[in-house]
Amino acid sequence: MKTVWIATGNPHKTEEFAAMLGDDVQVKTLKDLKEEPEITEDGTSFEENALIKARALHAIVHEPVMSDDSGLEVDALDKAPGIYSARFMGEDTDYTAKNNAILDAIKDKKGEERSARFVCAIAWIEEDGTEHVYRGTMEGYINDSIKGDHGFGYDPIFYYSPFGTTSADVDPEVKNSASHRHNALVQLEKDWSK
């Protein structure tokens, strides 16, 4: 069985990655280390932040490492919250408050003016230190209300046309088949199989 380290402590991300990577891959995370490192994400792009996290973990374990940096870009808000998605309105602010703030900020926007996307950059560092970065997106719109009990983060306000509802209003397996994380991971797995 292949072991892959993922530079995250987020249980939701870990769960999604584990589901998408399948049963043949054992996933380990920052939580499996004796001491979780302090990692400062001070990059100016999703790609830079993903590499910062992956490099920090690779320096500790010297094994294959994967990291993602992801977030929501709302076009009417000049692509905010973007790389600050997790820290938007403060890291301790719950996502109901964050989602309501975005809904309120674009309440007068209609149709295409509500366009948005989830972005995911995955950094993959091989055991020998060779680095790769992959970007996946999921294009959609900001819904007019919070809807759905699945997913996490901004899923309850992200309307994805092929689903006909938000990404929080479908089963996780359905969401994972089209998500930004899935789309970046597909590119990575193509390189794995070469």
Topology (SSEs and partners):
Elements: E1 2-6, H1 11-21, E2 25-29, H2 46-61, E3 65-74, E4 80-81, H3 95-105, E5 115-125, E6 131-142, E7 158-160, E8 165-166, H4 172-176, H5 180-192
Parallel strand pairs: 1-2, 1-3
Antiparallel strand pairs: 3-4, 3-5, 5-6, 6-7, 7-8
Describe the structure.
By secondary structure, the protein is of the alpha+beta class. It has 5 helices and 8 strands; from the N terminus they run E-H-E-H-E-E-H-E-E-E-E-H-H. The chain has helices at residues 11-21, 46-61, 95-105, 172-176, 180-192, and strands at residues 2-6, 25-29, 65-74, 80-81, 115-125, 131-142, 158-160, 165-166. Strands 1, 2, 3, 4, 5, 6, 7 and 8 form an 8-stranded mixed sheet that branches. It is globular. The mean pLDDT is 93.
Low-confidence stretches: none
| Cα distance spanning the termini | 18 Å
User: Which fold does the CATH topology refer to?
Assistant: Maf protein
Instruction: Kindly provide the radius of gyration, computed on alpha-carbon positions and rounded to a whole number of angstroms.
Output: 17 Å
- Any guess at the CATH architecture? Alpha-Beta Complex
Order of helices and strands: EHEHEEHEEEEHH
When the domains are counted, the total is: 1
Q: Which CATH C-level class is it?
A: Alpha Beta
Overall shape: it is globular
- The number of strands is 8
What is the arithmetic mean of pLDDT?
Answer: 93
Structural class: alpha+beta
Q: Mind describing the biggest β-sheet?
A: 8 strands, mixed
Helix content: 25-40%
Number of helices: 5
Percent in strands = 25-35%
